[in-house]
Amino acid sequence: MADHADLFDQVAGVLGSGDEIDLAWINPADAVSALRAHPYDVGVVVVDARHTDRLAFLHDLGADETLRELPLIAFIQREISKAQRARLDALSKSAVITVADAPERLADQAALFLHRAEATLPAPTRKLLHVRAGTAPLQGRKALVIDDDIRNVFALTSMLERYGMKVVYAENGREGIERLHQHANTDLVLLDIMMPEMDGYETSRAIRSMPRFAHLPIISLTAQAMTGDREKALAAGASDYISKPVDVDELRELQG
């Protein structure tokens, strides 16, 4: 959602096109009705200091019952004020909105939302991602992803492997504990909160009850953060709590 063809071309150049993805330009004035009329997989909203109305637009989308689950990427095309960035960060915590302040982050987050393997991305985008991955402290570490949604697992696995991590997968809490016993050298657990039978809270408590995993980093994941969820996750034994889609920079910070 941008108001100039050159901005659309810039976004299209990062995300790529062809058989793997269809891109559509939407005039901001018509965006809400267009989004209601067509099932888009992700929206990219270009934000800069000249268009303060975009923040209000993002707020309205997050509050709309029919659109609030639509994944959105707020792409900061030019520098914005500290107040605007603070408001944007606040919006990202209350809806399925992630902030991209560089082309490589836009490519990274779009690939996660669209569940795209790196091989399907255009060559310039793959180069951006490899440059970005080169400074990650995740290289060589092993992650256990526990999530019952195979789309999320694919997205997380693609991202983590791009940064040189080895990934083990489990589709529920009980299987996750089994995988943990099989892979005792696991460095990190990414644990979905909302799972049937044994949810993330129960799984986290079960892992913490085993002395050998008392200090294993456990990052709880949720599709949409609700008030009190972080405190509940920490009380159950999680090391930290972040929203989906996982922001790799945030994960890198948590991993030191």
Structural account:
It is a single chain. This protein has 256 residues and is α/β, with parallel strands linked by helices. Helices cover 43% and strands 15% of the residues. The protein contains eleven helices and eight strands. The strands form two sheets. Strands 5-4-6-7-8 form a five-stranded parallel beta sheet, sandwiched between helices. The two termini are 35 Å apart. Mean pLDDT is 77; it is low at 116-120 and 127-136.
The structure class reads: alpha/beta
Instruction: Provide the helix percentage.
Output: 40-55%
Low-pLDDT segments: 116-120, 127-136
Order of helices and strands: HHEHEHEHHEHEHEHEHEH
CATH architectural category of the largest domain: 3-Layer(aba) Sandwich
- Helical segment tally? 11
What is the CA-CA span between the terminal residues? 35 Å
What general outline do the C-alpha atoms trace?
elongated
Layout of helices and strands:
Blueprint: H1 5-15, H2 31-37, E1 43-47, H3 53-63, E2 72-76, H4 82-94, E3 97-100, H5 103-113, H6 123-133, E4 142-146, H7 150-162, E5 166-170, H8 173-182, E6 188-192, H9 200-208, E7 218-222, H10 229-235, E8 240-243, H11 248-255
Parallel strand pairs: 1-2, 2-3, 4-5, 4-6, 6-7, 7-8
Helix pairs in contact: 3-4, 5-6, 5-7, 8-9
Features:
single chain, 256 residues, alpha/beta, Rossmann fold, 15% strand, elongated
In a few lines, what is going on in this structure?
43% of the residues lie in helices and 15% in strands. It has eleven helices and eight strands. The protein starts with a helix and ends with a helix.
